[in-house]
Amino acid sequence: MRLPRKKNLAKQQHWLVPKGVLQLINAGVWHSYWRDPYHLLLTISWSRFLLVNVLIYGVLNALFALAYLAVGNSIANAQPGSFWDAFFFSVQTLASIGYGAMYPQTVYANAIVTVEAFVGLFGFAAIAGVVFARFSQSTARTIFSRNAVVTPYNGIPTLMFRTANQRGNQIVEAHMRAYLLRNEISLEGQFMRRMYPLRLLRSETPSFALTWTAIHPIDADSPLQGQTAESLVQLKAQIVISLSGIDETVAQAVHARHLYQAQEILWDYRLVDIIHETKCGEHYIDFKHFHDVVPMTITSAQPLDF
Q: Class for domain 142-295, per CATH?
Protein backbone atom coordinates (compact mmCIF):
# COMPACT_ATOMS: atom_id res chain seq x y z
CA MET A 1 0.00 0.00 0.00
CA ARG A 2 1.47 3.34 -1.06
CA LEU A 3 0.99 6.31 1.22
CA PRO A 4 -0.31 9.52 -0.39
CA ARG A 5 2.37 12.07 -1.07
CA LYS A 6 2.12 15.43 0.60
CA LYS A 7 1.41 18.28 -1.74
CA ASN A 8 4.01 20.59 -0.18
CA LEU A 9 6.85 18.19 -1.04
CA ALA A 10 7.24 19.49 -4.57
CA LYS A 11 10.80 18.22 -4.89
CA GLN A 12 12.45 15.07 -3.69
CA GLN A 13 15.25 15.36 -1.19
CA HIS A 14 18.59 13.72 -1.78
CA TRP A 15 22.10 14.06 -0.46
CA LEU A 16 25.64 14.33 -1.68
CA VAL A 17 28.77 13.32 0.17
CA PRO A 18 31.62 15.28 -1.44
CA LYS A 19 34.87 14.46 0.37
CA GLY A 20 32.85 12.70 3.04
CA VAL A 21 30.76 15.72 4.02
CA LEU A 22 27.05 14.99 4.05
CA GLN A 23 25.06 17.70 2.29
CA LEU A 24 21.27 17.73 2.05
CA ILE A 25 19.80 19.00 -1.20
CA ASN A 26 16.43 20.82 -1.11
CA ALA A 27 16.54 20.67 2.68
CA GLY A 28 14.46 23.85 2.77
CA VAL A 29 11.43 21.75 1.77
CA TRP A 30 11.15 20.46 5.32
CA HIS A 31 12.96 23.06 7.31
CA SER A 32 13.68 26.74 7.09
CA TYR A 33 15.86 28.84 9.34
CA TRP A 34 13.39 31.69 8.95
CA ARG A 35 10.90 29.68 10.99
CA ASP A 36 13.22 30.15 13.96
CA PRO A 37 14.53 33.73 13.59
CA TYR A 38 15.99 33.87 17.11
CA HIS A 39 18.20 30.85 16.44
CA LEU A 40 19.12 32.30 13.06
CA LEU A 41 20.23 35.62 14.57
CA LEU A 42 22.35 33.77 17.14
CA THR A 43 24.12 31.51 14.66
CA ILE A 44 24.88 33.72 11.66
CA SER A 45 28.16 35.63 11.48
CA TRP A 46 28.50 39.14 12.90
CA SER A 47 28.71 40.67 9.42
CA ARG A 48 25.47 39.01 8.36
CA PHE A 49 23.86 39.88 11.68
CA LEU A 50 24.65 43.56 11.17
CA LEU A 51 23.51 43.40 7.54
CA VAL A 52 20.17 41.85 8.52
CA ASN A 53 19.60 44.55 11.16
CA VAL A 54 20.50 47.36 8.74
CA LEU A 55 18.10 45.97 6.15
CA ILE A 56 15.28 45.58 8.68
CA TYR A 57 15.91 49.09 10.00
CA GLY A 58 15.89 50.60 6.52
CA VAL A 59 12.80 48.72 5.36
CA LEU A 60 10.91 49.58 8.54
CA ASN A 61 11.64 53.29 8.20
CA ALA A 62 10.73 53.18 4.53
CA LEU A 63 7.34 51.62 5.32
CA PHE A 64 6.58 54.27 7.94
CA ALA A 65 7.72 56.98 5.52
CA LEU A 66 5.18 55.72 2.99
CA ALA A 67 2.54 55.73 5.74
CA TYR A 68 3.28 59.40 6.47
CA LEU A 69 3.11 60.23 2.76
CA ALA A 70 -0.25 58.49 2.39
CA VAL A 71 -1.91 61.63 3.75
CA GLY A 72 -0.39 64.91 2.58
CA ASN A 73 0.83 67.69 4.90
CA SER A 74 1.00 65.39 7.93
CA ILE A 75 4.55 66.49 8.80
CA ALA A 76 5.19 70.15 9.52
CA ASN A 77 8.08 71.83 7.64
CA ALA A 78 8.57 68.80 5.38
CA GLN A 79 8.62 69.23 1.63
CA PRO A 80 5.29 68.01 0.21
CA GLY A 81 5.65 64.53 -1.25
CA SER A 82 9.34 64.22 -0.20
CA PHE A 83 10.12 60.60 0.59
CA TRP A 84 13.45 61.43 2.21
CA ASP A 85 11.93 64.03 4.54
CA ALA A 86 9.38 61.44 5.63
CA PHE A 87 12.09 58.78 5.90
CA PHE A 88 14.34 60.82 8.19
CA PHE A 89 11.31 61.93 10.20
CA SER A 90 10.61 58.22 10.69
CA VAL A 91 14.21 57.67 11.82
CA GLN A 92 13.81 60.38 14.47
CA THR A 93 10.54 58.86 15.67
CA LEU A 94 11.74 55.24 15.71
CA ALA A 95 14.87 56.10 17.69
CA SER A 96 13.10 58.60 20.00
CA ILE A 97 15.69 61.20 19.06
CA GLY A 98 13.33 64.17 19.44
CA TYR A 99 12.03 66.44 16.74
CA GLY A 100 13.79 69.49 15.37
CA ALA A 101 12.29 71.39 12.47
CA MET A 102 9.82 68.62 11.51
CA TYR A 103 7.04 67.42 13.79
CA PRO A 104 3.60 65.77 13.37
CA GLN A 105 0.82 68.25 12.82
CA THR A 106 -2.27 66.10 12.19
CA VAL A 107 -4.17 63.48 14.14
CA TYR A 108 -3.26 60.90 11.48
CA ALA A 109 0.46 61.70 11.81
CA ASN A 110 0.32 61.50 15.60
CA ALA A 111 -1.38 58.11 15.35
CA ILE A 112 1.40 56.80 13.10
CA VAL A 113 3.98 58.30 15.47
CA THR A 114 2.36 56.44 18.37
CA VAL A 115 2.53 53.13 16.53
CA GLU A 116 6.10 53.74 15.39
CA ALA A 117 7.26 54.74 18.87
CA PHE A 118 5.89 51.48 20.25
CA VAL A 119 7.52 49.47 17.45
CA GLY A 120 10.80 51.28 18.15
CA LEU A 121 10.75 50.49 21.87
CA PHE A 122 9.88 46.87 21.25
CA GLY A 123 12.37 46.49 18.40
CA PHE A 124 15.35 48.01 20.21
CA ALA A 125 14.61 45.92 23.30
CA ALA A 126 14.53 42.76 21.18
CA ILE A 127 17.73 43.61 19.30
CA ALA A 128 19.50 44.51 22.57
CA GLY A 129 18.55 41.10 23.96
CA VAL A 130 19.87 39.28 20.89
CA VAL A 131 23.12 41.29 20.93
CA PHE A 132 23.60 40.52 24.63
CA ALA A 133 22.94 36.82 23.97
CA ARG A 134 25.54 36.80 21.18
CA PHE A 135 28.16 38.51 23.35
CA SER A 136 27.43 36.26 26.34
CA GLN A 137 27.94 33.06 24.34
CA SER A 138 30.99 31.29 25.72
CA THR A 139 33.05 29.46 23.12
CA ALA A 140 36.26 27.50 23.30
CA ARG A 141 39.06 28.94 21.18
CA THR A 142 40.81 25.70 20.40
CA ILE A 143 42.79 24.67 17.36
CA PHE A 144 43.13 21.13 16.04
CA SER A 145 45.99 19.77 13.98
CA ARG A 146 45.30 19.95 10.26
CA ASN A 147 45.81 16.20 9.89
CA ALA A 148 45.41 13.13 12.03
CA VAL A 149 48.06 10.44 11.67
CA VAL A 150 48.24 6.67 12.05
CA THR A 151 51.64 5.81 13.50
CA PRO A 152 53.17 3.04 15.64
CA TYR A 153 53.05 3.74 19.37
CA ASN A 154 54.36 1.12 21.81
CA GLY A 155 54.34 -1.35 18.94
CA ILE A 156 50.64 -0.82 18.11
CA PRO A 157 49.25 1.18 15.15
CA THR A 158 47.75 4.26 16.72
CA LEU A 159 45.55 7.13 15.58
CA MET A 160 46.85 10.48 16.83
CA PHE A 161 45.83 14.10 16.55
CA ARG A 162 46.35 17.11 18.79
CA THR A 163 44.60 20.21 19.94
CA ALA A 164 45.71 23.41 21.65
CA ASN A 165 44.04 26.08 23.77
CA GLN A 166 44.49 29.42 21.98
CA ARG A 167 43.54 31.44 25.04
CA GLY A 168 45.96 32.19 27.85
CA ASN A 169 43.69 30.59 30.46
CA GLN A 170 42.69 27.04 31.35
CA ILE A 171 39.77 24.82 30.48
CA VAL A 172 39.13 22.81 33.63
CA GLU A 173 37.56 19.34 33.71
CA ALA A 174 38.07 19.01 29.97
CA HIS A 175 36.62 15.96 28.22
CA MET A 176 37.42 14.75 24.72
CA ARG A 177 35.46 12.20 22.72
CA ALA A 178 36.28 10.73 19.30
CA TYR A 179 33.95 8.85 16.97
CA LEU A 180 34.29 7.02 13.67
CA LEU A 181 31.51 7.81 11.20
CA ARG A 182 31.26 5.61 8.11
CA ASN A 183 28.88 4.18 5.53
CA GLU A 184 27.62 0.64 5.91
CA ILE A 185 25.32 -1.75 4.06
CA SER A 186 23.36 -4.20 6.21
CA LEU A 187 22.84 -7.86 5.31
CA GLU A 188 19.40 -6.84 4.01
CA GLY A 189 20.99 -4.32 1.67
CA GLN A 190 19.93 -1.27 3.67
CA PHE A 191 22.24 1.74 3.60
CA MET A 192 23.03 3.46 6.88
CA ARG A 193 25.52 5.89 8.36
CA ARG A 194 27.01 4.28 11.48
CA MET A 195 28.94 5.89 14.32
CA TYR A 196 31.42 4.08 16.53
CA PRO A 197 33.19 5.50 19.62
CA LEU A 198 36.99 5.52 19.57
CA ARG A 199 38.58 4.81 22.94
CA LEU A 200 41.27 7.33 23.87
CA LEU A 201 44.13 6.54 26.25
CA ARG A 202 43.34 9.82 27.99
CA SER A 203 39.87 11.21 27.40
CA GLU A 204 39.83 13.80 30.19
CA THR A 205 42.17 16.15 31.99
CA PRO A 206 41.69 18.34 35.07
CA SER A 207 43.31 21.30 33.30
CA PHE A 208 43.68 21.91 29.55
CA ALA A 209 46.01 24.88 29.20
CA LEU A 210 48.41 24.29 26.31
CA THR A 211 48.34 21.19 24.09
CA TRP A 212 46.65 17.82 24.21
CA THR A 213 47.61 14.85 22.02
CA ALA A 214 44.78 12.36 21.63
CA ILE A 215 45.87 8.71 21.26
CA HIS A 216 43.63 5.88 20.05
CA PRO A 217 45.28 2.43 19.82
CA ILE A 218 44.06 0.47 16.78
CA ASP A 219 43.82 -2.86 18.58
CA ALA A 220 41.38 -5.74 18.28
CA ASP A 221 38.59 -3.69 19.89
CA SER A 222 39.06 -0.64 17.65
CA PRO A 223 36.56 0.08 14.84
CA LEU A 224 39.61 1.01 12.74
CA GLN A 225 41.06 -2.50 13.01
CA GLY A 226 41.76 -3.84 9.51
CA GLN A 227 41.06 -0.54 7.79
CA THR A 228 43.41 1.18 5.35
CA ALA A 229 43.63 4.66 3.90
CA GLU A 230 41.87 3.43 0.75
CA SER A 231 39.07 1.61 2.60
CA LEU A 232 38.30 4.66 4.74
CA VAL A 233 37.92 6.77 1.60
CA GLN A 234 35.58 4.19 0.08
CA LEU A 235 33.48 4.15 3.26
CA LYS A 236 33.31 7.99 3.29
CA ALA A 237 34.74 7.74 6.79
CA GLN A 238 35.11 10.69 9.13
CA ILE A 239 36.64 11.12 12.57
CA VAL A 240 34.39 13.38 14.67
CA ILE A 241 35.99 15.08 17.67
CA SER A 242 34.06 16.64 20.55
CA LEU A 243 35.83 18.67 23.25
CA SER A 244 34.07 20.19 26.25
CA GLY A 245 35.01 21.76 29.56
CA ILE A 246 34.59 24.78 31.81
CA ASP A 247 36.31 28.06 30.98
CA GLU A 248 37.96 29.19 34.22
CA THR A 249 37.68 32.88 33.28
CA VAL A 250 33.91 33.04 32.85
CA ALA A 251 33.04 29.82 34.73
CA GLN A 252 30.85 28.66 31.84
CA ALA A 253 30.77 25.44 29.86
CA VAL A 254 32.52 25.62 26.51
CA HIS A 255 32.72 23.14 23.70
CA ALA A 256 34.50 22.66 20.41
CA ARG A 257 34.00 20.28 17.52
CA HIS A 258 36.28 19.15 14.73
CA LEU A 259 36.06 16.68 11.89
CA TYR A 260 38.75 14.80 10.01
CA GLN A 261 37.94 13.53 6.53
CA ALA A 262 39.38 10.19 5.44
CA GLN A 263 41.77 12.09 3.14
CA GLU A 264 43.07 14.04 6.15
CA ILE A 265 44.19 10.90 7.99
CA LEU A 266 47.82 10.26 7.04
CA TRP A 267 49.19 6.74 7.45
CA ASP A 268 52.80 6.07 8.49
CA TYR A 269 53.33 9.69 9.47
CA ARG A 270 53.85 11.29 12.85
CA LEU A 271 53.19 14.72 14.28
CA VAL A 272 56.19 17.01 14.44
CA ASP A 273 57.43 17.57 17.97
CA ILE A 274 56.55 21.01 19.30
CA ILE A 275 57.77 20.56 22.88
CA HIS A 276 61.43 21.40 23.33
CA GLU A 277 63.83 21.66 26.24
CA THR A 278 66.26 24.50 26.88
CA LYS A 279 69.80 24.10 28.20
CA CYS A 280 68.48 25.08 31.61
CA GLY A 281 66.07 22.13 31.61
CA GLU A 282 62.94 24.21 31.01
CA HIS A 283 60.33 23.18 28.46
CA TYR A 284 58.63 25.40 25.90
CA ILE A 285 56.17 24.92 23.05
CA ASP A 286 56.79 25.99 19.46
CA PHE A 287 53.38 26.46 17.82
CA LYS A 288 54.90 27.28 14.44
CA HIS A 289 55.07 23.55 13.68
CA PHE A 290 51.73 22.66 15.26
CA HIS A 291 50.24 21.34 11.96
CA ASP A 292 53.42 19.77 10.57
CA VAL A 293 53.86 16.03 10.05
CA VAL A 294 56.85 13.95 8.94
CA PRO A 295 57.19 10.40 7.57
CA MET A 296 57.94 7.63 10.05
CA THR A 297 61.46 7.28 8.67
CA ILE A 298 62.32 10.24 10.94
CA THR A 299 62.34 9.21 14.60
CA SER A 300 62.28 11.24 17.75
CA ALA A 301 61.98 10.72 21.49
CA GLN A 302 60.25 13.98 22.28
CA PRO A 303 57.17 13.87 24.56
CA LEU A 304 53.66 13.85 23.10
CA ASP A 305 52.01 16.01 25.75
CA PHE A 306 52.83 18.88 28.03
A: mainly beta
